[in-house]
Task: inverse folding
């Protein structure tokens, strides 16, 4: 069994009485694009900063190729990093910014010139060597930062919410660039963001952070189809939750009583709680069906609103017990042509596509 | 330029160019600032006879040149020491936790606001032959006989540095605070050691603050009167005291005016340099 | 990492050590003077053989000291009032005026503050000799006003920048005359700037030495002039007593100013 390329083991960080990172453990393969996804304050940036060497962990270790990273000071870790606020050196030109790490490493001038040119070409800023950072747009500055971080071929690239300062269109453009650069260079990337769409677009795998811990690591598809916790279920993809009662649970599957009495079987269950306790049932809007005729094992609902959203239709419904559920139907769905606000309808779903959390 | 000179009391205020409000201040400054200085300039070229003899004497005689030299050297030394000592303090102040920085700032501001004469008097006493400094040095066995620390340029330098340090520390602290710490972290990750980070990133970025602080201290030191007069001796006078001596003791208005004008011109020239090269409003 | 306090390593000890030394350097002379003023040695020997109040007694017993202090107070008070009023008007004009050359005029008003005072002192002295104002209170006031005014213009100017004129215009719409609106609305809104202007103008005059030396006469001396004259003769500890009182006065003023600022914020 070979050693994983990057191994984060039991990292913990306390700031006085506040614990920012409780216990983070994961392995990252060489060349992988791993995203730390979570809301602010969940510990993802702190973990990244510990990797960079800007913070020392209270406990735990980080190994690269089997060797501990913690004993090395930041400037010797040979890691690249891109920050949220560009952080280019304002007193140096673009070319000098990118050349900086190479000058520190005392490379010969000819080599520096060549490698700077190549790095700028990689981020599609050919010929920008003499520009001053202050005169460039946010997107351009971030690309220079990327060039500077990659020019010395670090094995690991850290990215701390690099696109949150940019507007949506620019963000998508640079997301595309990042993906392309990842494929071209094969560098291992650890990326921090709170934007789940960004995470899904860019990553090989995603680690979902919540309150200093990792709730789940997996590909975007795994996290969407099989969320391990209530938090992951709500954070990735759209969701509805209703409170149900556990009638029985066995072998990872449960029998639940929905509000209103309907009983459903075979719901994948996370978290073992005995019968009689409450469980939260995840219903994805796009996995719900609406029909005018009563359906066995379905929910009776009233239509509150129907909104046309371009490529799909969103229907706001309400159960008899007051739960609001959002249904998403593809454009042209036959049920819609017959339903209007205030009508009664029946909501149904495949229990295998749902999850219960207790 | 069309001036609407009505002071405004009854008018609506919208058409009024607002110039009227400035009239009292303008009169004050014109009559009691611009006029006297121009008169002084005139006297320097008219007394005792029309011509530039006063300036020739001033810039030609070795005695007076020595005064200029003293002044520039002391101002230069004070500036260098203030910057070298003040920069690390400003640096620490910019990054230390607030409850400590507030204490240090309170000390610095208290020192700035304390009466100048009181502070200079303190040094006059401390630097005496029988003063505390000499006594401590002799007591520690570092010297055998008391050092002459006052009534000479050494005393003046010490006293002036004491006065000027806060004027360097406070603006520099502001400049360093405005530098994004993330830039220094990025530099470290690029592989730079602490020394390289300092020389290649922190120092260049704080240079505008250093330059403007140095210029301010240098210009202030050139024109300073009280501290050099009290801590210096009669044989190594500085420019401001020379002006005072011409006017008060020697009643030589021609020479006094000339010396004052030289001081004024040098000051204005240095300010012009600062405006041209270090003006923060200039687009770079 | 050079700007992260926790990550400085050994450098931190050096910076802290130097800062402590500088703080001691700045503070010890002040404490020294205060201690000296209570010491019994006339030759300012430190540590003094015994402690005494006699220098303070001598200070208060000598009518000339008291007189010079009162003169300082009187002149500073008058200068403060004039500086605030003229400065307020000038700041108003600079802030709202639409005429050409505002920046140049602003620079002109600030010049007395940045030029060597001795030049101004000598020039004014010459003028006052011709006008017969030398050694008069009026001359003193004019001279101090010239260097106090820039502080006033800056403080009130800054406060006016942060003030939205539309509030004043709204008052005019409600029926107030322009000056009434100014007094009732603008002045309270920039009161912190006016207060700062008053404090700085007062201190500028109270502490001023160079102009005072040239404006003074044997019968008209401010406190700094008296100290200066005494210092030229000998280093008697009475000066230490006077200095200590001045230092105490400064500290009280600073504490008051910061308390008032905190009070205004809440």
Result:
């Amino acid at each position: 069994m070979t050693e994983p390329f990057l191994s984060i083991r039991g990292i913990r960080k306390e700031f006085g009485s506040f614990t920012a990172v409780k216990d983070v453990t994961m392995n990252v393969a060489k060349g992988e694009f791993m995203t730390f996804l979570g809301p602010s304050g969940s510990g993802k940036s702190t973990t990244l900063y510990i990797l960079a060497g800007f913070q020392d962990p209270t406990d735990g270790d980080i190994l690269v190729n089997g060797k501990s990273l913690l004993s090395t000071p930041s400037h010797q870790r040979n890691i690249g990093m891109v920050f949220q606020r560009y952080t280019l050196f304002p007193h140096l030109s673009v070319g000098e910014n990118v050349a900086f790490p190479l000058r520190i490493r005392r490379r010969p001038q000819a080599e520096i010139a060549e490698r700077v040119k190549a790095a700028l070409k990689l981020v599609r800023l050919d010929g920008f060597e003499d520009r001053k950072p202050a005169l460039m747009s946010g997107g351009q500055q971030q690309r220079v930062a990327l060039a500077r971080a990659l020019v010395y071929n670090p094995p690991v690239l850290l990215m701390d919410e690099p696109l949150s300062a940019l507007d949506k269109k620019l963000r998508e453009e640079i997301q595309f660039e990042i993906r392309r650069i990842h494929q071209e260079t094969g560098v291992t990337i650890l990326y921090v963001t709170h934007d789940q769409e960004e995470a899904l677009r860019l990553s090989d795998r995603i680690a979902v952070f919540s309150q200093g811990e990792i709730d789940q690591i997996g590909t975007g598809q795994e996290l969407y189809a099989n969320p391990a916790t209530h938090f992951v279920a709500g954070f990735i993809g759209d969701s509805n939750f209703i409170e149900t009662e556990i009638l029985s649970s066995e072998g990872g599957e449960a029998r639940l009583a929905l509000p209103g009495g309907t009983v459903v079987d075979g719901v994948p269950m996370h978290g073992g709680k005995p019968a009689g306790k409450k469980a939260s049932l995840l219903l994805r809007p796009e996995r719900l069906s609406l029909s005018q005729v009563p359906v066995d094992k379905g929910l009776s609902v009233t239509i509150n609103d129907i909104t046309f959203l371009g490529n799909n239709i969103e229907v706001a419904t309400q159960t008899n017990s007051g739960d609001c559920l959002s249904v998403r139907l593809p454009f042209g769905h036959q049920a819609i042509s017959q339903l209007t606000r205030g009508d009664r309808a029946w909501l149904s779903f495949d229990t295998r596509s749902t999850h219960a959390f207790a | 330029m069309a001036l609407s000179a009505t002071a405004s009391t009854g008018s609506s205020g919208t058409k009024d160019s607002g110039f009227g409000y400035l009239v009292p201040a303008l009169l004050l400054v014109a009559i009691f600032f611009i006029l006297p200085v121009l008169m002084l300039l005139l006297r320097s070229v008219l007394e005792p006879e029309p011509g530039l003899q006063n300036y020739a004497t001033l810039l030609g005689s070795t005695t007076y040149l020595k005064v200029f030299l003293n002044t520039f050297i002391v101002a230069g030394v004070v500036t260098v020491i203030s910057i070298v000592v003040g920069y690390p303090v400003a640096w620490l102040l910019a990054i230390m936790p607030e409850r400590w920085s507030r204490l240090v700032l309170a000390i610095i501001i208290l020192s700035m606001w304390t009466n100048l004469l009181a502070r200079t008097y303190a040094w006059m006493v401390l630097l005496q032959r029988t003063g505390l400094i000499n006594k401590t040095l002799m007591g520690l066995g570092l010297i055998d006989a008391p050092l002459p620390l006052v009534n000479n340029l050494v005393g003046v330098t010490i006293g002036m540095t004491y006065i000027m340090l806060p004027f360097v520390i406070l603006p520099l602290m502001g400049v360093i605070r405005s530098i994004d710490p993330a830039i220094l972290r990025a530099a470290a990750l690029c592989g730079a050691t602490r020394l390289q980070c300092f020389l290649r990133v922190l120092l260049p970025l704080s240079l505008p603050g250093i330059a403007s602080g140095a210029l301010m201290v240098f210009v202030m030191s050139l024109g300073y009167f009280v501290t050099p007069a009290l801590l210096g001796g009669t044989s190594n006078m500085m420019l401001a005291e020379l002006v005072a001596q011409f006017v008060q003791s020697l009643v030589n208005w021609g020479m006094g005016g000339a010396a004052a004008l030289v001081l004024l011109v040098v000051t204005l020239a240095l300010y012009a340099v600062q405006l041209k090269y270090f003006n923060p409003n200039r687009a770079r | 990492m050079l700007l992260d306090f926790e990550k400085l390593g050994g450098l931190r000890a050096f910076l802290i050590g130097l800062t402590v030394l500088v703080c001691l350097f700045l503070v010890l002379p002040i404490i020294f003077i205060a201690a000296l003023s209570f010491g019994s040695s006339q030759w300012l020997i430190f540590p003094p053989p015994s402690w005494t109040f006699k220098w303070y007694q001598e200070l208060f017993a000598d009518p000339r000291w008291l007189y010079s202090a009162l003169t300082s107070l009187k002149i500073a008070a008058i200068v403060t009032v004039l500086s605030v009023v003229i400065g307020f008007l000038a700041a108003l004009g600079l802030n709202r005026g639409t005429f050409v050359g505002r920046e140049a005029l602003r620079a002109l008003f600030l010049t007395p503050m940045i030029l060597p005072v001795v030049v101004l002192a000598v020039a004014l002295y010459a003028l006052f000799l011709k006008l017969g104002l030398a050694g008069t209170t009026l001359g003193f006031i004019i001279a101090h006003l010239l260097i106090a005014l820039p502080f006033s213009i800056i403080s009130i100017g800054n406060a006016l920048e942060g003030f939205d004129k539309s509030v004043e215009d709204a008052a005019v719409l409600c029926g107030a005359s322009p000056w009434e609106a100014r007094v009732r609305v603008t002045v309270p809104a920039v009161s912190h700037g006016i207060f700062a202007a008053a404090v700085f103008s007062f201190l500028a005059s109270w502490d001023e030495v160079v102009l005072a030396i040239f404006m003074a006469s044997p019968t008209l001396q401010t406190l700094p002039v008296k100290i200066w004259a005494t210092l030229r003769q000998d280093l008697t500890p009475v000066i230490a007593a006077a200095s200590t009182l001045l230092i105490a006065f400064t500290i009280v003023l600073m504490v008051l100013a910061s308390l008032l600022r905190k009070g205004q914020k809440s």
User: Anything to note?
Assistant: Chain B touches chain C through 99 residues (CB under 8 Å). DSSP finds twelve helices and no strands in chain B. Chain B has one domain: 62-283.
